[in-house]
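I am still getting used to backbone structure tokens and would like to learn alongside you. To get us started, please write out a protein record for me. Once you have written the record down, we can walk along the chain together.
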Amino acid sequence: MLRNRGFTIIELLIVITVIAILVGIALPRFKGMQDEGNIAKVKGELRTLQTAVESYYIHNNNAYPATGAAALQTALASAVPSIINYVPTDPFSSTGADYVYVMGGTNSKFYIIYSVGPGGNGSAVITDDAVVETNGASCIYISNMEADTQP
């Protein structure tokens, strides 16, 4: 008696269904791991930027760079001695923008550098009484106010 050596359509459909279920389980976990990796990257880059800003402060008569990502980029890239070549971009920004750098508090002696975070909608400001206020649960920031420095 001859027997065909092949798969039936039902066997193929079962295998395809099992593979589809496994892919459906794995994809959300992969996205979560990507976000965790980007959060760690952001925290490291924010610490680097904080060190660069403090170095700029020391070498420029105790003055911080002006507010704004473009001003920060210009100040740090053209500083003497050289501090950093460029300000990295925020991996959570949908437009590929740099991290946001804002001055605040009395006499603008405090700064905050932040990422919009995984939600893409985070922001932060420094009030006149030197308190960091964040908007959006996903904001990741660093500041020169020791009590309020997050990462």
Summary: Residues 9-148 form a domain with the Glycoprotein, Type 4 Pilin fold (CATH 3.30.700.10).
